[in-house]
Amino acid sequence: MLIWIFRAIFFVVLLAVLIANLSSDAIAGAMDKTNSWAVLWSALGMAVFVLFLDILTPKKKLSALAGVFFGLLVGMLLSMALAPAVTMITESYGIDLIPESIKAIKWMMSICICYLTISIVMRTKDDVRFVVPYVEFSKQSKGARPLIFDTSAIIDGRVADLCESKLFDAPVVVPRFVLNELQLIADSADKLKRTRGRRGLDILHVMQSSSVIDVEIDDTVIPEVEEVKGVDQKLMMFAKSRDGRVVTTDYNLTKVAQVREVDVININDLASSLKTVALPGETMDVRIIKPGEEAEQGIGYLSDGTMVVVEGARDKIGRDLAISITSSLQTSAGKMIFGKFEKYAARKESGK
Fold first, then answer.
1. How far is CA 234 from CA 69, 145, 148, 221, 230, in A?
2. Which of 50, 141, 177, 312 could be bridged to 116 by S-S, CB 3.0 to 4.6 A?
């Protein structure tokens, strides 16, 4: 939308300058109409040329307003450098033009060049590379870099405790599209997904109510983010635009972020360096959801999505069991707990 407004302003300014010069006493009152036609055709030719070049340029938007001023500065410098070329062409080909006509042509050329340079800068990426000496300028953020949560990190819940303990002394940012995805999960027809989504919304509400955690729901519409599809890709672009660090428990998202050179904090990697939550010999209650891959195995899940593999529970699907933990496995892909069936959970026995 911004680029079309800029194009309209360009047309208005170019037309106004053209009419003002053609209606001037020097050009309009000249006996020879060569001056008027030269000014008119020069303006139209340059306008059509830069517009075609602008439209055919690959579209790469720049959100920073400073790009407009940078493009204007470059355009003015190029106009000053190319202005003598107009005089040289008229003299070389013997075109009999009065000074006012030459001056009008230079004005048209300057407007077109400024438009073209600003348009090119507006379509480049945020990392501006100069031809000499190929120096790349990166954005510098002030203060602590924000932590950008995805849905898996919010649902996991452990990150809320980490922020509450002041381990991460940085503001927490939840993009609008992440909140929308969390709501879709909470409205899912699948009971397990719906429970996880509601858990994530509850955890986010608790974090917002905390006086220690600075949570921001970012509703900013960023063109670069809106152009890409998929929440993960939007998250990468959003993290780059905010110069933030992505917080997730998704193993694949962690690898993609590393490839895209986006700083990422994987809660599972952080947990692997800490004490294991589930110790062998401890007991816990879990509902068996489905059969496991091996014989006699049943699969259940904790409220944070941790998979629990229970030996001797294949025929107890849909029941709440009290299990004894035998081992646990923590990787970047997540946490798995292994246990064996001890007895039915007390709450189920009391309901019989």
1. 28, 18, 12, 11, 6
2. 50
